[in-house]
Amino acid sequence: MERIAIFASGTGTNAQNLIRYFNFDNPRSATVAAVFVNNPDAPVIQRALVYGVPVYTFSKRQLELTDDVLTQLHRRGITFIVLAGFLLHLPDNIIDRYYRRVVNLHPSLLPKYGGKGMYGRRVHRAVLEAKESVTGITVHIVNHYYDEGEITMQKTVDIDPDESVDSLEQKIHELELEFFPKEIERLIQTCC
Description:
By secondary structure, this protein is α/β, with parallel strands linked by helices. The protein has one domain (2-191): 3-Layer(aba) Sandwich (Rossmann fold). It has helices at 13-25, 44-50, 60-65, 68-75, 92-97, 120-129, 165-191; strands at 2-8, 30-37, 55-57, 80-83, 102-106, 134-141, 151-158. The longest helix is centred in the C-terminal third of the chain and has 27 residues, at 165-191.
């Protein structure tokens, strides 16, 4: 059975959805074995603990300058990594060790509106300012560059003429909740 680690930095609604999908709703060939968090005050911690999923918190320094995070992944037998609202760049040691086994969810149709600093509401605001008529979500393999890895799935949603950042954020989140778990499952089945 594949053992997933979710990396998150914030509220954790996607992490919670993944935990329910893999661990409870219909147990599958993978399980969320841990949540790795760089923000000790992030609500995702409580969301994971409610479901009995262990949490490992770490600092940016630990991630970038030591092998601590990689060691913790090994200790937990992690075989697949999912970035779900994780705001830091993964270092080479993790990307290399988990080659093609790290995926990220991005709230736009890459390659548009990606790159360093483009996350969450910043992305939605940029999409609206550019007067796009369609946006969506992208799941991609993580490589050494922000949002440049191989795209494995995109789902789209129309943008209404009177769309706000809040309403667009809600539309995107609904796509994430519906399609992200299924794409992770598909990737695990085809790659592992």
